């Protein structure tokens, strides 16, 4: 059974008044660089295409519009870096969402060019369902209060993703709560908790990812290498299943990404966004949605490449790394 979508607006929201969102008030979408292919949005209910523009004119148009919900950019890697930076600044100033449809090869460079203040939905080799999900996610913060949301397959997939993130958070929380009570360490995970600020915790110094000569590797590094080899072997075993069973039967991108980032941390090796997408063993668009959700949840963090401003790395948050350490210590007991 379908449910009506109800919203509260302005003073009516304070008074508890409810209005059904009228069909005449769709979300506005500006397409950049899509040209003739923009017609694929005409059939999407609740979305109104306001214009299709070349990248050189997009920033000025965004600033001139009174209301704009979403900006869809196709092939941002083909846009001049200065023009793309101007467009991103205009989107940030307007406060609308950005949907980027790019290639896996260009993903790292494009991701590094977009400020963290912009809500971004990523698409790589996307199909029609992926595009609908990106639009649904980009529209999710447009209205002040959402009381009920119509259920469709795309929203069901988003719900399952959020439930899986919550399950992983609870799992890691249970492990972290078994800590010995050392001062300055987080006690566990709670749904909705912000992991970016632990006032009493001294964060580890920035990692230089430098590899030491084997003859000078201390005992602790040797143990880390052995643990990393074990995690890599576990990942290879997970991939081996796909030779005998359908790949989507065991799809668990969140856990695969956690393992890959954990092994990389032990190896003191950085992990780019595109590399993590490959490690997830799911389509890149799905992997990017997982990365965004887990970053928003505080499980992952973004780190700038100190040697190349055009690239960012994804790493485990300290609390997540600590929980995985405890998990693998428990396995070895």
Query: What's the pLDDT, averaged over the residues?
Result: 76
Order of helices and strands: EHEEEHEHEHEHEHHHHHEEH
Say how many strands there are.
10
Number of helices: 11
Indicate the overall shape.
elongated
If you compute it from the alpha carbons, what radius of gyration comes out, rounded to the nearest whole angstrom? 22 Å
Oligomer: single chain
Task: State the separation between the terminal residues, measured CA to CA.
Answer: 50 Å
Q: Indicate the proportion of strand residues.
A: 5-15%
Biggest beta-sheet profile: 5 strands, parallel
Structural class: alpha/beta
> What topology, given as strand order, has the largest sheet?
4-3-5-6-7
- Extract low-pLDDT stretches: 1-24, 141-149, 180-192, 198-205
Question: Helical residue percent?
Answer: 40-55%
Short key terms for the protein model shown above:
333 residues, alpha/beta, disordered N terminus, 5-stranded parallel beta sheet, 3-stranded antiparallel beta sheet, 43% helix, 11 helices, elongated
